From TrEMBL:
Residues 197-206 have a biased composition (Basic and acidic residues). Keywords: Electron transport, Heme, Iron, Metal-binding, Signal, Transport. SMART domains: CBD_IV, PKD. Residues 623-715 form the Cytochrome c domain. This is PQQ-dependent sugar dehydrogenase. Residues 188-211, 324-350 are annotated as: Disordered. The lineage of its organism: Bacteria, Pseudomonadati, Bacteroidota, Sphingobacteriia, Sphingobacteriales. SUPFAM superfamilies: Cytochrome c, Galactose-binding domain-like, PKD domain, Soluble quinoprotein glucose dehydrogenase. It comes from the Bacteria. It holds the Pfam family PKD_4. It comes from Pedobacter panaciterrae. Residues 769-896 form the CBM6 domain.
């Protein structure tokens, strides 16, 4: 009887628990209460990044069509279509837009019933004299946008005199409601370190109280409407103000935004998330840093989100008096009043809502993972696993219910987790193994893949690194990652090219791979192929790598036929690997080009310099820098890695002045390094217009000075070297043994047969003849470090162990000196060419340790056979007795020309 009672009770408990679980799982407004099925962060090798198109011209927003073609818009007015079958991009329309300041063709969305009605929604600044932005829809039939089908839904009066902030993102929620974000459209260039609240007569365009904080203006808002089938729109239930407009414009859902550039809508509960791009202020926050906060906001309901009165967690900004130049009152976030004479709406505003996430230029103590420096916060989509049933590339259950946010300038993506009430809980990096060039849009497709638009490096320009990319996640069997290696991507016709797919990777090691090439309409099998391109032109080569389970990875490369890269050579009688005191480096630069019959000698660039740290040679060659500018490497590297590149470039107009123009303006001015270094750290405006420069308070004064020194060097003309010369090598004297000389010669041809001009270079890098043994390129010995002596050396030298140095020129070298420590029975150091069993050109006998057990370091010398040309040098260690391990230790090797 007792056991039956327990069985009934247990059954009842299980039923109640199951009901509770079902209720909470399905009635928690989209937030999972229970533990996630998978709590393991997915391995980064399960993501495949595919570049679909590049070289775009300011891409703004995209839409994934039902057939997985991608429609996207560019700011200057182009509507483009990526065809997923042909893997090509086509311009299908050009909208007449005003593309000054930050305006242009900004937003794009598909109607939720696109498969039936073919409506595409665009938001753009209308071309012409009238200042207004328009929300309109057009029919997309096949690959044609029908201009005559335009239906204008909404027009917003704007001003085009001052920059900035247009926003303009579009998105539908799950109920068919259309959302549009609008920027404050206010003069952001004359804020004097405060906020644009200029109430002086005639200064209305510099007062955000007339736009963002104005209930009777559609700017600085997120709007919410329902498009009607026959045209026009209706107001949905639940906007901020009554439908009759008695308290404010009925289209407004949220207000009080500065530049709500990118937003997303939770498709389960309707919550809205957006990144609001922050100002540059000199107002201190409660944490002691400047209130230059970017924000990620969450709207569970309509509301006022603070700007221009509050930032972050409702920290109040003073109402700056531009007439007296004094900061004034701070508003009450529980009852903010808009008393500006430029306000045309209600004076009493809704209570201010705090940001969900906020961060400034300094490292954030509240959200430390976001980093520091310049910022442009954006909100991407929320992922729900059950919205992608049977999707082949759907993300792991680990990300179920998480919001993806990203930052244009800092380059990260974060996955945000919420608690049971839908409030912020934590964030973590997403795809941190990938680098992005100004991520500007992020969306899921029905197959679970993530599509992204990357704006590229320079503002307001076409960028080679502006891309449309697709990211696929796969559990179970992973798709191979195809990679093409080409021996000659450029050349004259006919061009015989060797193509290899051998660098392709499949992380499922046991898979068998099949390689298939598509070249000029032909299909060719094999991991390696040879193909002859007979006529000039630019050809696409596609490699498909298929595993034995049917997964396919694809890569595409271009072959440019019609122009041969120039041949640049440096002839020299000197040793091409080492320098010695009192040496001359003689050289002669020779350039040949198949298409350029006559070489313009004035276009051959020859440069030479000494680098205190020899490993900087690779940095200079990778960055095409003048070796004479070695002293500025640290500064140039910092400029490349900080957020500076978001506003400045070398010689191409962007948001801020070019580095070269800065260099020209300040060349030779007194104390300019100190002045500009201070500007880098503190920010400011006024020298290049009123646009504010971001502060970089985390940069030290010394590092800022390094950056400024590099910029100022750009206007200094270096003397042109002749094509034939002898240079005395004396810059290394008194500067240690770590330095290198670099002679670099380069030439750019004229281009030919429709193929762009090509660059080629040759160089000679000379290092100190003292070579540390532990710097070997390959070997099977250990490296020991003695910290107190600042010394490292090779140890664990056993019979037939070795170290190898790549490509050493032995011309003129007559002896080799070794610094060895005898610790055992001794042995031999054999110097061999090109392999462990190659020609023997030198042998040193290392004696056994002394009977008293002393293990002193000794300098021992061996002769070397006269040898010409570059060789891989193998230092092979052999035993001379029964002891086969720990024969001796080796610190350095000196190559002597005496």
């Amino acid at each position: 009887m007792k056991s039956n009672y327990l069985l009934v009770a247990a059954t009842f408990f299980i039923l109640v628990l199951s009901s509770w679980i079902w209720k909470n799982k399905h009635e928690n407004h989209g937030f999972q209460v229970l533990s996630k099925i998978d709590t393991t962060v997915p391995d980064s090798s399960r993501y495949t990044r595919i570049v679909l198109a590049e070289g775009l011209d300011e891409p703004m927003e995209m839409a994934v069509l039902p057939n997985l073609n991608i429609l996207f818009v560019e700011r200057k007015g182009a509507v483009k279509l990526y065809n997923s079958k042909t893997k090509s991009v086509k311009t299908i329309a050009n909208i007449n837009v005003f593309s000054g300041i930050e305006d242009g063709l900004l937003g794009l969305a598909l109607d939720p019933k696109f498969a039936e009605n073919h409506w595409v929604y665009l938001y753009f600044a209308v071309g012409g004299e009238e200042s207004k932005s328009r929300l309109a829809r057009y029919q997309l039939v096949g690959d044609k946008l029908i201009n005559k089908s335009e239906q204008v839904l909404l027009e917003i009066p704007t001003q085009r005199k001052y920059c900035c902030h247009s926003a303009g993102y579009l998105s539908f929620d799950s109920k068919g409601i259309l959302y549009l974000s609008t920027g404050d459209n206010t003069n952001a260039e004359e804020t004097e370190g405060y906020t644009p609240v200029d109430e002086r007569p005639g200064r209305g365009l510099a007062d955000d109280q007339a736009t963002s904080a104005n209930t009777n203006d559609l700017r600085g808002k997120i709007l919410r409407i329902i498009p009607k089938d026959g045209g026009g729109y209706s107001i949905p239930e639940g906007n901020l103000f009554p439908k009759d407009g008695s308290k404010g414009l009925p289209e407004i859902y949220t207000m009080g935004s500065r530049n709500p550039y990118r937003f997303s809508i939770d498709q389960k509960n309707g919550y809205v998330y957006w990144g609001d791009v922050g100002p540059d202020t000199k107002v201190e926050s409660e944490d002691g840093e400047y209130m230059s906060f970017d924000e990620i906001n969450q709207a569970k309901k309509p509301g006022f989100f603070g700007w221009p009165y509050f930032l972050g967690n409702n920290q109040a900004l003073p109402l700056y008096n531009y007439a007296t130049k004094q900061p004034g009152e701070k508003k009450d976030p529980t009852k903010p009043l808009n008393n500006s004479p430029n306000n045309t709406g209600e004076k009493e505003l809704p209570p201010a809502e705090p940001a969900m996430i906020w961060y400034g230029k300094m490292p954030s103590k509240h959200f430390p993972m976001v980093g520091s420096g310049g910022a442009t916060a954006a909100a991407g989509p929320i992922y729900y696993s059950d919205l992608f049933p049977n999707a082949p590339y759907k993300l792991s259950e680990y990300y179920n219910g998480k919001l993806f946010i990203y930052d244009w300038i800092r380059g990260w993506i974060m996955a945000v987790t919420f608690d049971e009430s839908g409030n912020y809980k934590q964030m973590e990096p997403f795809l941190k193994h990938l680098k992005f060039s100004a991520l500007v849009d992020m969306q899921f497709s029905k197959d679970g893949a993530i599509y992204m638009l990357e704006y590229g490096t320079n503002w307001f320009s076409k960028n080679t690194d502006a891309k449309l990319i697709r990211i696929e996640y796969q559990e179970g069997n992973r798709k191979p990652i195809a990679e093409i290696t080409v021996d000659k991507p450029y050349g004259a016709a006919p061009l015989l090219v060797n193509l290899s797919g051998n660098k392709s990777v499949d992380f499922d090691k046991e898979d068998k791979l099949d390689f298939s090439w598509m070249i000029a309409g032909k299909t060719i099998s094999g991991s390696e192929v040879k193909y002859s391109f007979e006529k000039p032109g630019i050809y696409n080569v596609e490699l498909n790598v298929k595993d034995d389970k049917g997964a396919v990875g694809t890569a595409i490369s271009k072959i440019h036929v019609g122009n041969t890269p120039p041949l640049v050579a440096i002839k020299s009688n000197s040793n091409r690997s080492f320098y010695w005191d009192g040496q001359l480096l003689d050289y002669q630069v020779v350039v040949k080009d198949v298409e350029d019959k006559v070489i313009d000698q004035n276009k051959v660039k020859v440069s030479f310099g000494y680098l205190p740290q020899g490993k900087d040679v690779a940095v200079i060659l990778a960055g095409n820098q003048d070796p004479g500018a070695y002293k500025y490497l640290k500064g140039s590297g910092m400029l490349a890695n900080l957020d500076c590149k978001a506003c400045h470039s070398m010689d191409k107009a962007s948001v801020g002045p070019t580095y070269k123009s800065i260099s020209v303006r300040y060349a030779g001015k007194k104390d300019v390094v100190k002045t500009l270094a201070k500007k880098v750290i503190e920010g400011g405006s006024g020298n290049w217009g009123e646009r504010a420069m971001s502060a970089h308070p985390a940069v030290s004064p010394d590092d800022a000075a390094e950056m400024v020194d590099y910029i100022l060097s750009l206007s200094r003309k270096s003397g042109k070297l002749p094509l034939k010369n002898s240079i005395p090598l004396k810059d290394h004297l008194g500067k240690g043994k770590e330095g290198s000389y670099l002679l670099n010669a380069s030439y750019r041809d004229k281009g030919a047969n429709g193929i762009e001009p090509l660059d080629s270079r040759a160089y000679i890098s000379l290092r100190n003849p003292y070579v540390q043994a532990e710097d070997f390129d390959k070997g099977n010995v250990r490296i020991a470090t003695i910290t107190t002596a600042f010394m490292a050396y090779t140890t664990g030298i056993a019979d037939h162990s070795y170290i190898k140095f790549n490509e050493i020129d032995l011309a003129g070298i007559k002896r080799v000196k070794y610094n060895v420590q005898v610790i055992g029975t001794g042995g031999n150091i054999e110097l061999r060419l090109d392999s462990m069993n190659g020609p023997l050109i030198s042998r040193l006998i290392v004696p056994a340790a002394a009977a008293d057990g002393k293990t002193d370091w000794k300098e021992l010398t061996a002769a070397i056979e006269v040898t010409k040309g570059n060789h891989d040098l193998y230092f092979v260690f052999t035993a001379s007795g029964d002891q086969k391990q720990d024969l001796f230790n080796l610190d350095w090797i000196y190559f002597s020309n005496k």
